[in-house]
Amino acid sequence: MTLPRILAIETSCDDTSVATLEGFQVRSNVVYTQVLHEQYGGVVPELASRAHMEALVPTVESALKKAGWALKDVDAVAVTQGPGLLGSLLVGHSYAKSLALSIGAPLVNVHHMEAHMLAHFLVEPGIQETAIPGFPYLCLTVSGGHTQLVVVHDWNQFEVLGETQDDAVGEAFDKAAKLLSLAYPGGPVIDRLAQSGQAKFSFAQPQVPALTFSYSGLKTSILRSMQARSKEVPATLTDEVADWCASIQAALIQPLLKGLQEASQQTGIKRIALAGGVSANSHLRQACQTLAAEHNWDLYLPPLSYTTDNAAMVGAAGFFAYQHQRFGSMSSAATARMHD
To answer: Is the dihedral of CA 79, 170, 285, 160 positive or negative?
Structure first.
């Protein structure tokens, strides 16, 4: 059977990404990262959308070249419709509609977070050799904008069991890094420095209902702990930075592990997957591997290239939709907020 050739586009935030897939087989997955935001300590939406406009066409050309395809070979165009930064989404979505129309291929609209959760189906030599075995599976989706426990019943059926009541865990990592005067994005920097530190500082964990998360109060507790320690040891944020990173990382990850165990126990689901940018965190991955051994879970950790925003995952969601003939119309529009 000939598999459809899908060109996938992802521009929901500050990464311009284009991928080519034959079914779930990734032929190319090109990501252009906008480093210009580092100097601002966060993503500047207007600058992001402008950068997408400059990068999108060359990134499409690069992805096609790596796959050995011409535009006439494309059977469908999949694109992130939302959620995300509206300006960034508009660039990718408008381009995708124009491209689909010009080559006479169907358009597939993709939900960004659903794409993260379906990235486990991708097959790419040397990256991810085998796909996840089947539905349902329990997915911990963690990023700068989302912290959710989701049962993936099917490719288009997602049940949110619990989510953050305020800030997302990825945002908490970035805010903590800023308090330590570390570079943006903060998560990878904290993860790296934590390797040589000890988790010797403790913070007040929020009391929230089961399967829900809260990081606002924890961020405040981290700040107050830093202020108190600075009075005793003025240079603590530089001299003890590795210990702060190890302590912060342990505190931010602990609620995720607790929630994952409770969700598995409640649902009886032992197929466990991680998704989203924070799923690259080494402490989270190691702790989940330990839990998997203890609880007899089948654990699916995404390759690092599929944890951050990428177009291959959009292509995976797009292939599912293509199989079921779920296509978007030319009147569809990008949207910053979408129902999960």
So the answer is: negative
C-alpha 320/C-alpha 76 separation (Å) is: 12
Nearest to 138 by CA among 298, 305, 303, 309: 298
* Count of positions (residues) in the chain: 340
Based on the fold, state whether residues 88 and 146 are members of the same structural domain.
no
Helix (H, G, I), strand (E, B) or coil at 33: strand
CATH code for the domain of 49: 3.30.420.40
Q: What distance in Å separates the CA atoms of residue 295 and residue 234, rounded to the nearest whole number?
A: 44
pLDDT digits (tens, 9 = 90+) for 220-255: 999 999 999 999 999 999 999 999 999 999 999 999
| Helices within the chain (DSSP H only) | 45-67, 86-103, 112-118, 169-179, 186-194, 216-232, 236-239, 241-267, 282-295, 304-307, 311-323
Residue 175, domain extent = 137-301
Q: Where are the alpha helices (DSSP H) in 104-162?
A: 112-118
> 130-148 pLDDT, tens per residue?
777 689 999 999 988 889 9
